[in-house]
Amino acid sequence: ASPVGVAHTITDQEEMDAKDLKLILPLAPNDNNNWGPKTPHVLRYLLDPEYTAVNVFSRPINIYVDRTAPGGGLLGELEIPLIEPDYVVTPDKLDSSGRLVARVPSYGGQYEGDEITLLTSRDNVNWDAVAGANVKLPPGASENTDVTVYFPLAALLALADGQRWLGYEIVDRAGNRSTVRAVGRPVTLLLN
Questions:
Q1: Cα separation of 157 and 143, whole Å?
Q2: Predicted confidence band at 34 (pLDDT cuts at 50, 70, 90)?
Q3: Assign residue 154 a region: left if phi > 0, alpha if psi is -120 to 50, beta otherwise?
Q4: Which helix (H) or strand (E) holds 15?
Q5: How would you classify the pairing of strands 185-189 and 88-89?
Q6: pLDDT tens for each residue of 141-151
Q7: 59 Cβ partners below 8 Å, 6+ apart?
């Protein structure tokens, strides 16, 4: 392995502050490091102390370079079992907290730290994020993790009754946003 980046000399102030150092790993789009969140690169750093001629290597650290959008180019429709097969939302189809329960189908690249944002639309063209309804996948989550999401009553009432669409998008830990929004699930709201 060869060194990358620029050497950083620790200043007297940094030494006195005793804070973590932020080291920048210079990656460019053409570096061919698109291995995804499950394949680590091994990173080590070298300390070259002034007071001794012996260099000190850190222990190896696994880092992950992920430039792939969650789900690639495909996200499945929300599954909403309590309103199937007609997809009509009435007050009796909400849970005891007044929320519509849905399930996000597993997707390629599903991994801990992914954040799912719920979306609503009146016309299946213009989409709005549902405030306070984001779901972050917990540590240990994988493509086998079931993800349950909840549309709060206030968000559904704000849409008013009629045919509406429910969907979602995903941002992973690396900041990659799903390249497509999930196909909007058409539902009929009868809540007012």
A1: 33
A2: low
A3: alpha
A4: helix 12-17
A5: parallel
A6: 888 888 999 99
A7: 44
